């Protein structure tokens, strides 16, 4: 499943010793291998922590680099489940490194909290910092109601298009063949992850055998459009 990824990072106050750097992916761009790079800064206590984001089409990496005395152990957790405890010591930099590599994100990873813990004694609570995964998801289901029924020329109809599963909310547009229809009276609504759009349509005999559809796309995910529609059958009164 293709999706974009953006990262929210929280740094708790107990992590006041040592240094911590995260290297995070900025996104998964659908149908694109373009490499993006973003940088952001987090101010923590008297230290300045850098977060670098590197885009990858295949996987993403959380890389923690810490130093402490005694040398800390570094682990990655999801809730109470241990994800990775394979850390390495880099003598030249006096750093402990733990690289968490995840090959694919899925919808159930939305708002998952990944925690990096560092400890160099059995007396104090381990220092930790958390990463919350905020996923941009494309719509998974688009439906028009009512659908696939013969229409009468000159009679007004109101159609409803519902798009589910998009985060942020889907943008819905209406189409006849490859021409987008203007919808000045549309009052789209949002309930949970379902976006609903309304369209009033008065067909003419010229609309017979024309394909009528609605499309929903996530505005931050290129190539995410899903659609529902059918070929109109217009009857004369």
Automatic annotation (TrEMBL):
Q: What is the organism lineage in this UniProt record?
A: Eukaryota, Metazoa, Ecdysozoa, Arthropoda, Chelicerata
Concerning Pfam families, the annotation shows: C2-set_2
Looking up InterPro entries in the UniProt record yields: CD80_C2-set (IPR013162), Ig-like_dom (IPR007110), Ig-like_dom_sf (IPR036179), Ig-like_fold (IPR013783)
Q: By its UniProt entry, which Gene3D superfamilies does this protein fall under?
A: Immunoglobulins (2.60.40.10)
| Name by which UniProt lists this protein | Ig-like domain-containing protein
Taking every annotated instance into account, which residue ranges of this chain make up the domain Ig-like? 126-233
**What is the species of this protein?**
Caerostris extrusa (Bark spider)
| Superkingdom per UniProt | Eukaryota
Q: By its UniProt entry, which PROSITE patterns does this protein fall under?
A: IG_LIKE
Q: Which UniProt keywords apply?
A: Disulfide bond
